[in-house]
Amino acid sequence: MMPIARRRFLQQLFAGSALGTLGLAGPFGRNVAAGTHDDRILVVFELSGGNDGLNTVVPYRNDHYYRLRPKLGIPASKLLKIDDDWGLNPGMVGFRRLWDAGQLAIVHGCGYESPSFSHFTSMAYWHTAAPNSGDEYGWVGRLGDTLAPEPRPGFIVNVDVAQSLAVKSRVHTPVVFDEPAAFQRAGYYETRALLDAVSEAPTSNPALAYLNGVAIGARDASAQVRAAWSAYRPRADYGIVPLQLPKVAACIAAGLPTRLYYVAFRNNAFDTHVQQADLHQRLLTYAADALHGFVSDLSQLGLAERVTILAFSEFGRRVPENANQGTDHGTANVMFVLGKPVKGGHYGEPPALDALDEGDNLRHTTDFRRVYASVIDGWLKPGAATAVLKGEFAPFPVLG
To answer: Least C-beta-crowded within 10 Å: which of 90, 104, 169, 269?
Structure first.
């Protein structure tokens, strides 16, 4: 006999679908009430490689910016100006539209004390929210454990070729996939039937019960994701490179029980040491178009009020340009919180360009964990940030 909890989950998941194996949300089928903390979703979007925040959100009235970047400094006439002091990179038309709609929050000066210039080390600090120490579990994984202290199949989804440290959880097994149409548990063809034929009978062996649970979850998650992708049709333009976001939209539209999604640029794309200008603008175009398309898609699905997006990079770039018309690894950076629920505007104190550190880098003015705290306390679970982040970090009023 199927265990009660398992049977109840499958009944809830697969009931009432006329379009495949999933009970679909919004216009496709069942309606999910928006506005309560229990149904809100967070999507974390990683700009891997060290995005140059100074050429992303440009202080075009600051003479020090153009003095330090005589070739890479973007002329004010080319920027997408958002106010009297700041302009977005010319490629960020999608972000300009979000800003004009009041759905883009820019947080300035984000970083941490004694910053690392290593991609791997600094990203590990951002993934675990534990700078200069690290943690066994990722901050998104710990957040999942706080929101749902008991295992829930599909509670965390990571769209990538391999699992990010950020989603590593003590309680939950994240669903990790890249191509949804081909998503299934890895294994040789000859062992496919054995992998899928997992016993659902009760067992008194805790280790066997755990392994069976993981195997069943993997099998069912692959079916869920494939069905969601098959039923999904985008309702907005994601641009040239959609950056995995339509896959997230498909899962949300299908009513998956996921509360936390994690996606990232591949291959350290933003590591712009050489000939930065054109490449950086192109990358930002991809990101801004895809994120604007994602928000627009959710709006047309009637789901935008349930979803907030947090975008970050592991560090910024050094302020002076280098001899290769690029920029080297730096420190403080901008972070973004975006979506229909967001209170758009500037947050945090911009770092001073006339008071760089001894390495010609920006001195951070905002601990990046304040932004994490902002989406945790302001969006998902008020008062939970202290436990998740293992410390007190004052949130910004970007949500709620």
So the answer is: 90
Average pLDDT, the chain: 88
pLDDT, one tens digit per residue, over 345-385 is 999 999 999 999 999 999 999 999 999 999 999 999 999 99
Q: How far apart are CA 245 and CA 320, in angstroms?
A: 33
For residue 316, give the nearest of 89, 65, 119 by alpha carbon: 119
Q: What is the pTM assigned to this prediction?
A: 0.86
According to the model, what pLDDT value does residue 115 have?
Answer: 98
Residues 327/309, Cβ–Cβ less than 8 Å: no
**296/291 Cα distance (integer angstroms):** 9
Query: Which residues does 265 contact at the CB level (< 8 Å), separation at least 6?
Result: 46, 47, 48, 49, 243, 283, 287
**How sure is the predictor about 211, in pLDDT bands with cuts at 50, 70 and 90?**
low
Report how far residue 258's alpha carbon sits from residue 193's, in angstroms, rounded to the nearest whole number. 27
Name the 3-class secondary structure at 175: strand
Cα distance between residue 122 and residue 111, in whole Å: 10
What residue ranges define each of the domains in the chain, with the CATH number in brackets? 25-389 (3.40.720)
Taking a C-beta distance cutoff of 8 angstroms, is the pair 340, 299 a contact?
yes
pLDDT computed for residue 11 by the predictor: 36
Q: Which of 49, 62, 43, 118 is nearest to 280 (CA)?
A: 49
- Dist. CA 222–CA 341, nearest whole Å: 30
Instruction: List 20's β-bridge partners, or say none.
Output: none
Task: Kindly list the distances between the CA atom of residue 319 and the CA atoms of 64, 65, 80, 123, 170, in Å, as whole numbers in the listed order.
Answer: 10, 8, 21, 20, 39
